[in-house]
Amino acid sequence: MADTSKALNSKAGEASAEAASESGSPIELAGGGFDFSGMLAVADMLPVMVAYIGEDLRYRFMNKPMADWFERPRLELLGLTIRELLGEEAWAMREPLIAAAFAGERKFFATDFRHPTRGNLAVQTNYMPWTDGTGRVRGVIVLVQDVTEQRAAERALRESEDRFRRIANQAPVLMWVTRLDRTRDFVNDAYVDFVGGDRELARTLDWRERIHPDDHDRIVQESIAGEAGRGTFTLEGRYRRGDGEYRWLRSTSSPRYAPDGELAGFIGAATDITVAKEAELDLKRQVEERTAELVRREAQFRAVFEAALEVMVLLEPDGTVLAVNNRREIWRHPNPDDAIGLKLWDSPTMKAYPQHRAVMREGIAQAAKGRIFTTEVQMERAGLPTAILDVSVQPVKDTDGSIIYLLFEARDITELKAAQAQLRQSQKMEALGQLTGGIAHDFNNLLTVVVGGLDLLTKRIEDEKLKRYATNALTAAERGARLTGQLLAFSRVQRLEVRATHIAPLIDNMRPLLKNVLGPGIEKKFDLDEEMVPVLADPTQVEVAVLNLAINARDAMPEGGVLTFKTRHVVVTQETDLDPGDYIELSISDTGSGMTEDVRERAFEPFFTTKEVGKGTGLGLSMVYGMARQSGGVARIVSEPGKGTSVSLFFKAAGRARKPQPATPRSRPANLKRRRSASSSSTTTPTFGNSFPRRSSTRAMSFARLQTARLG
């Protein structure tokens, strides 16, 4: 080993001395003298292969990396020519380059070299001329670097880039690689085609100029936020294509980093989603339209549901409450929504009326089978008025006929039932009136002849016994005439002297008469309106009706009480037995024993009486009812046992109110005064004197004007 080193130093020293003599200057190191071993050690440490070629084209110096690369000892290589070491083919390619280097030019080239053992290798060679002090080139310093692996990596990288470009250009999406300054290192063909123009324009285009105005601010903000987040982010919006058409793009961008870990830019891809987006927007529009339609229909349903005049409940087929309207009824639970989610028969309302829970179960079961269930129920509970309900449960079917819901409805028909009862009563009274009117009219004509004949007989018969018989017969006939008059009054076929009459002054003028009739045990109260609205009525018949009602009230208060006379102006808009318009209501109320419901319903019927036999004919209230109806109004009774009775007479207004006038007593017919004290159950009755023949006597005519009536 020592011998080899000495030989290398000797041979290398000769080469170095030769090079030094040729250059005219010695090779020196920092130590001052020529130290070849130190210089050789430095050369062997270099990462590149270094050699020196003299003018004879022989290797005069070579460092260890080059000798190792040739896989031969350095001593074998020193002194060889380039042709001997590299071969003919390599020498042929390098010969002109060596010549140029000896001519003073620096040459750098890369080429392939066929290594004896390793095959084709890639090398980079640098020929640097070595000149002496005169400028003459005395040799060439050769720097060689094996770049085979680097060349392979570069080739692989180029192939990878080529593959990426081919793939990217074949992709139907826009692809790009950006820098931090927003310019692009790469754009694929789809990107260029979308932008329009050449690749350079696509590479430097500012995308913000192509964003749709409606999307611009949003996309810019989302882009800034995505880049700041240093993660993958997605943008979606409309961008203007090169031909001016806006297209929907969905882009995804991810950050890319340099080898040092610093952010270098972004890699992104964008897909044209115009067709899908338009379909999505169209679907969204349809959904919004249908949603709006559903909302509108829901609002309509809810409006109808809430505006319904009956209680409505939407149910599942099993009876579970889904929805309720807010119809308020006195019998209903104050919070209807509390029933939602419960079975109908378990709802708070049904718990308050447990007697109807079985009916609700039956109705729901029947409706769930497809049949409509209807019934009437009475909602009776302590402390609340009784309500009559018309209840129905009906199925709600889908288009295929399957039952999807049940609809429960409960309509309060309490007032309807009362109106129907009132109508039936009115129709019954009308029928009775027509019947009694026909009979009474014919009977009245017969009595007129009888009374007239008996009156003449009593005046002409001298025999006292016969005269007494005739007088008794006349008295009986007169009583029959009174009954006939009452029947005619009830049937409303009597002739009334109707004129504009003020009720309040008329009642006021009757105070002395009422005082005498009622006696000291009855307290009288008057609450008369001051509007002075005239009504169409026969004042005499009104007085008779008032007197009848007052005497009836007196009989109902044998131990005394309070009798109230009240008038007021009312406006009727919708009544079954009254036309719309203005009316004066005259009510006479007592604090007597009152009537039961069955008595109250029959009170106006002719010949119906609760008095003992011989104390009433049952025609008094019938006459009052007939007079009110014939005057264009009606008579009504409100009464309960133990709470007294109130009879109201409605008279149709005949004009506007006038200022009150001082009341002046009006003379009473003599026959009215005579009959007033005859009996506690006698009052006045209407005239029907037009049916008497002109030849009737004065007494017959006087009887025809007689106005007394037996109360029922």
Number of helical segments? 22
Cα shape: rod-shaped
Beta-strand content estimate? 15-25%
How are the strands of the largest sheet arranged?
A: 2-1-5-4-3
What ranges have pLDDT less than 50 throughout 5 or more consecutive residues? 1-9, 15-34, 660-712
* Separation, N- and C-terminal Cα atoms: 165 Å
**Structural class, from helix and strand content?**
alpha+beta
What characterizes the major β-sheet? 5 strands, antiparallel
Mean pLDDT: 80
Radius of gyration: 65 Å
Count the E strands.
Answer: 24
Kindly state the percentage of residues in helix: 40-55%
Q: What oligomeric state best describes the polypeptide chains here?
A: single chain
Domain Histidine kinase: 438-655
Biased composition (Low complexity): 10-24
InterPro entries: HATPase_C_sf, HATPase_dom, His_kinase_dom, HisK_dim/P_dom, HisK_dim/P_sf, PAC, PAS, PAS-assoc_C
EC number: 2.7.13.3
List keywords for this structure.
712 residues; alpha+beta; five-stranded antiparallel β-sheet; histidine kinase; PAS-assoc_C
Task: Report on the architecture of this protein.
There is one protein chain. The chain is an alpha+beta fold and 712 residues long. Helix content is 43%, strand content 25%. The protein contains 22 helices and 24 strands. The strands form 6 sheets. The protein has a 5-stranded antiparallel beta sheet, with helices on both faces. A 5-stranded antiparallel beta sheet has the order 7-6-10-9-8, with helices on both faces. Strand 8 and strand 9 form a beta hairpin. Helix 14 runs antiparallel to helix 15, helix 15 crosses helix 20 and helix 18 packs antiparallel against helix 20. The termini are far apart. The N terminus and C terminus are likely disordered. This is histidine kinase. Keywords: Phosphoprotein. Its EC number is 2.7.13.3. It comes from Sphingomonas daechungensis. InterPro entries: HATPase_C_sf, HATPase_dom, His_kinase_dom, HisK_dim/P_dom, HisK_dim/P_sf, PAC, PAS, PAS-assoc_C.
